[in-house]
């Protein structure tokens, strides 16, 4: 969690999604309010998720920084080690240019040979990645 912003628990997300697309869009908009950057945790299925892409596009349109942090090689709460997925920014174009957002937005691959080292990298570098994302957005 960044600054106390925790992901929606599974049961809350199921409640939101069962209310339909407009409820999901409202929830995403509410989560973005008063924020300056969206951090996308990039796993093996992230690039295939409709609402992740929607959140990235809406964040960019709102002038927010956007940054990706790859989470492959990390153990989750169930001790499962995640696999590498596609960069979601490769599937989103920037404005009318047709240029991929991945040409502008960073998607970091945390260094480390094991889960602990990668979590340590994220802990050490996340705030700088967020600040850089805000600057990148300001310049683009």
Report the sheet-strand fraction.
5-15%
Q: Please compute the radius of gyration using only Cα atoms.
A: 15 Å
Mean pLDDT: 91
Computed structural class? alpha/beta
Measured between the Cα atoms of the first and last residue, the distance is: 27 Å
Low-confidence stretches: none
Please give the number of β-strands: 5
Element-by-element helix/strand order: HHEHEEEEH
Count of the separate structural domains: 1
Largest sheet: 3 strands, parallel
Helix content: 40-55%
The best one-word shape is globular
By DSSP (H or I, 4+ residues per run), the number of helices equals: 4
Sheet with most strands: strand arrangement: 1-2-5
Write up what this structure looks like:
The two termini are 27 Å apart. The chain has one domain. Helix 2 packs across helix 3 (50-61). The chain has helices at residues 10-18, 21-32, 50-61, 115-139; strands spanning 37-42, 65-70, 93-94, 99-100, 107-108. It has a 3-stranded parallel beta sheet. It has a two-stranded antiparallel sheet with strand order 3-4. A hairpin with a 4-residue loop joins strand 3 (93-94) and strand 4 (99-100). The chain is an alpha/beta fold. The chain has 4 helices and 5 strands. Pfam families: ThsB_TIR (PF08937). This is Thoeris protein ThsB TIR-like domain-containing protein. Residues 9-75 form the Thoeris protein ThsB TIR-like domain. It comes from marine sediment metagenome.
